[in-house]
Structure formats: structure tokens, C-alpha cells
Amino acid sequence: MMAKTITVSLADASSTRSLGVCLGQSLPAGSVILLKGDLGSGKTTLVQGIGEGLGITELIVSPTFTLINEYTEGRLPLYHFDLYRTEPEEVAALHPETYWEGVEFALGIVAIEWAERLPYLPPSYVSVCLSYQSGGDRRVDLLGVGEFQLDYLDELATLPQRDSPTEYGFSESENC
Ligand SMILES: Nc1ncnc2c1ncn2[C@@H]1O[C@H](COP(=O)(O)OP(=O)(O)O)[C@@H](O)[C@H]1O
Ligand SMILES: [Mg+2]
Description:
Elements: E1 6-10, H1 13-26, E2 31-36, H2 43-54, E3 68-71, E4 78-82, H3 88-93, H4 98-101, E5 109-113, E6 125-132, E7 138-145, H5 151-157, H6 172-175
Parallel strand pairs: 2-5, 2-6, 4-5
Antiparallel strand pairs: 1-7, 3-4, 6-7
Helix pairs in contact: 1-2
The structure holds adenosine-5'-diphosphate and magnesium ion.
């Protein structure tokens, strides 16, 4: 089956967060979200929404020095990586696979900022690419890769999208 990319326009930071909330409410244990996009494109904002959707009340901030933060108070554990300015060997030494294999750590949601720095990829994941658009809003391209093609991605695809994605804004109340 050809995987399809779903493109949504995010008019402001709360739209980015709402998309994250939707993902956090619906993602199954073992999901890996690989986040790509320039500095300031909204990766951390999306992960904060995922945390909210999971029911995590603790403030989620990028794990700059530790490279990974774990949050265990929600529906599922959230493992948040930020690989900005890392080298592949440094990332390999973290053994990121232990967070998605479900042996050493309980299966949860793994969210990885700067996922292009991963030396290897999980067998299944959701690719989330954020980019700037003119006017200051953001565009997000979502793609399910591997064995689980998640239903919510299909649901997102059925949302009213226009030729110009800037005309469409994501709102949690309508779409979750
Ligand atoms: N859709 C959006 N439109 C406009 N600003 C946004 C949007 N999403 C996030 N932001 C803002 O962009 C800034 C950087 O976001 P952040 O999530 O820290 O980016 P990153 O983690 O990719 O560096 C924050 O001030 C955030 O509120
Ligand atoms: Mg960030």
C-alpha cells in the first residue's frame, strides 16, 4: 500500500499544540514520532501537546543536556528526545531502540526532535515534518511508516483541506 502524506496547516502555536493533544490522546503504546524541521518550527510545542493529550501536567521542556526526558504520570510514558547538535555516535550510545522495543523500558510514546540525527530508525514510526510558511504559520506533513498505519492519520486525511493548506487550521475540538 502506498503510504500517503497528510498535510495540515497550523495557523498558530495553539494549533500546533492541539494537533499534539490529538496525537497524545490517540496514539497506541510503542508509537515513535520522528520530528523534523528547522529551529523554531514547532517541534517542542507539538511534544508539549502530546504530553497534555497523555495527561502529563509536568512542564515539558527540551532535554538539552540529558538528550532525553521521561514523563511517567500520563496514560502512557512519554520519552522525549532532542538530538539537536548531537553526533551519530553520541546518539547510538543512548541506545534509543531500548525506548521503542519495550524490553528495558515500558512501551510508551517516543517523541524525537531532530530525528534526522538518528543513526538508525525504528521499524514503524510516524514522520512529522514541520516547516515555516509565509505569514508565520507552519505546515506539518504527517506520514505513517511501517506496519501500523494509524487510523487517526486517515481521519486527519478526511479533514477539509484546500489547495492552499494555509486556509485550513487545525482545531482540537473539531478533530479529536
Ligand atoms: N503553528 C505555529 N505558528 C506560529 N508559531 C508557532 C506555531 N507553532 C509553534 N509556534 C511558536 O514557535 C516558537 C518555537 O517553537 P518550538 O516548539 O520551540 O520550536 P522547535 O522545537 O522546533 O525549535 C514558539 O514560540 C512557539 O510558540
Ligand atoms: Mg525544540
